[in-house]
Structures are given as C-alpha cells and as structure tokens.
C-alpha cells in the first residue's frame, strides 16, 4: 500500500488534502481512483489508513480511517554528519541509511573531501537529497522523513554538538589501537528518545586537526569493528548496530 507524508496543515478534521507531486504520483503514475486505500503520515509521526474520497485535478481528498499502531522508528534519533564523498555515494548513503532509521543527514565539508560545492550546486543537491530521503522513507514504511540539511562547514557542525546526548565520530585509528567498545558503551548509556550525532569522514578519513577539534567539542572516537570500512558503508554499520542493540 502506498504511503505519503503530509504537512500537518494538509489534515482537516477526519480527512486530508493531497496536492503537488504526491497528487500527481497518485493520479498519473499509480492511476488511483476514488475508493482506493493509501497510508498518510503527519509531521508528528502519526500514520492512518485513508480512503480516496474524490480527485479533482491536482488536489485529492481522502478520508482518514483507522490509526496505524505499529512503530517503525528507532528508539533514539540518529543524525549522520557525513564528509562529502565522491560521485553519487552520498545519495546511496541517504537511501540506505533512511531505510535503516536515520533521522537527519548533515552533508559536511571536511579537509579531505574531494567534492567542493558552490552555493548553486549545493542547493540543487540538497533538493535532490531530500527527495531521495522521502522516497526511501515511503518505501521502508517510516513514520517520518529524515531531513537533509544544507551543506555544513566543520565549525557549524561543532556548534550543534550541544544539542545531542551523545556525539561520536567513526575513526579508523581507534580500531587500529584495539579500542572497540565505545559505540556499545554509548548505546548502553543513551536513554529512549535520546539524540545521537555520528560523524563519518569522506574517502580520505578524518584529519588529525579535525580529530582534535572533535575531541575538544566533546565527541568520542568509536571503532566500527576491527575491519576498515568504506565511507559509504560506515553509516549503515552504525545504524544496524543501533537497531540490533535497541530493537532486537
């Protein structure tokens, strides 16, 4: 059953109005008709079964049926701050990490990032990245759509650290030194509905200068097992470990 994420303003009493790309997808792509059922979710992570009442061009009216009780979100909010990687790797990260439960993505300019985006290119990229997150959230039956922020500088990232209960950075040197327990320890300590920020470097990794700044800002280095992972694999490993520790 198709799932659509709506703004709270689109809900009216026991119904909702669907417009824009979602309405086009329903009428032109899915060829839906009055009487068909869908799932709609609001910004408060509440989802309902809904029945199409009427379709009028680019506006579709649905009636809300029963509330969906199943919870599909991780018990904590996880933000992935990712050093900009080459090619379309970040698109892949957004898609797969959304399926695994990430709440937010911060594309990050780092010292070893080969990719450099000017304001115009960055704006178009962010728009596309958010679309990918929305489609992945629909496919994986999430209750909310993760946000992809504008591209951050390293200082902007550090300034946000105080908003989180746990701040980690994936650091391969930690694995080489045999210090493998930080992620496990952090997951034992964090409370339900807590917020975690995890920094993942680009292909070249996190520089020594960035490591120093992260440590000074209260971030803790964590290893992701004894093996060295590719930059696009690390977020999936982290989210899978979180799911295993807190959900299974």
TrEMBL record:
GO terms for cellular component: cytoplasm. It is found in: Cytoplasm. Residues 18-64 form the Ribosomal RNA small subunit methyltransferase E PUA-like domain. It comes from the Bacteria. It is an enzyme of class 2 (transferase). It catalyses: uridine(1498) in 16S rRNA + S-adenosyl-L-methionine = N(3)-methyluridine(1498) in 16S rRNA + S-adenosyl-L-homocysteine + H(+). Keywords: Cytoplasm, Methyltransferase, rRNA processing, S-adenosyl-L-methionine, Transferase. GO terms for biological process: rRNA base methylation. Residues 73-243 form the Ribosomal RNA small subunit methyltransferase E methyltransferase domain. InterPro entries: Alpha/beta_knot_MTases, PUA-like_sf, RsmE, RsmE_MTase_dom, RsmE_PUA-like, tRNA_m1G_MTases_N. Its EC number is 2.1.1.193. One of its GO terms (molecular function) is rRNA (uridine-N3-)-methyltransferase activity. Belongs to the RNA methyltransferase RsmE family. Specifically methylates the N3 position of the uracil ring of uridine 1498 (m3U1498) in 16S rRNA. Acts on the fully assembled 30S ribosomal subunit. NCBIfam families: PRK11713.1-4, PRK11713.1-5, RsmE family RNA methyltransferase. This is Ribosomal RNA small subunit methyltransferase E.
């Amino acid at each position: 059953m198709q799932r659509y994420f709506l703004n709270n303003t689109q809900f009216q009493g026991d119904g909702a109005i669907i417009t824009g790309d979602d309405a086009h997808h329903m009428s032109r792509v899915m060829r839906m008709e009055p009487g068909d059922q869908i799932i709609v979710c609001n910004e408060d992570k509440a989802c309902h079964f809904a029945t199409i009442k009427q379709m009028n061009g680019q506006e579709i009216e649905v009636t809300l049926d029963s509330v969906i009780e199943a919870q599909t979100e991780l018990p904590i909010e996880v933000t992935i701050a990712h050093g900009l990687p080459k090619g379309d790797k970040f698109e892949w990260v957004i898609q797969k990490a959304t399926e695994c439960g990430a709440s937010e993505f911060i594309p990050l300019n780092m010292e070893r990032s080969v990719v450099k985006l000017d304001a115009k290119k960055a704006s178009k990229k962010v728009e596309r990245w958010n679309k990918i997150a929305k489609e992945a959230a629909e496919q994986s039956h999430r209750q909310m759509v993760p946000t992809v922020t504008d591209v951050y500088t390293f200082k902007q990232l550090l300034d946000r650290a105080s908003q989180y209960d746990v701040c980690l950075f994936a650091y391969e040197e930690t694995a080489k030194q045999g210090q493998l327990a930080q992620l496990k320890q952090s997951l034992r300590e964090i409370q339900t509905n807590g917020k975690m920020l995890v920094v993942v470097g680009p292909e070249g990794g996190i520089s020594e200068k960035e490591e120093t700044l992260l440590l000074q800002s209260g971030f803790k280095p964590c290893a992701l097992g004894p093996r060295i992972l590719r930059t696009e694999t690390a977020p999936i490993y982290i989210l899978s470990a979180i799911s295993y520790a807190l959900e299974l």
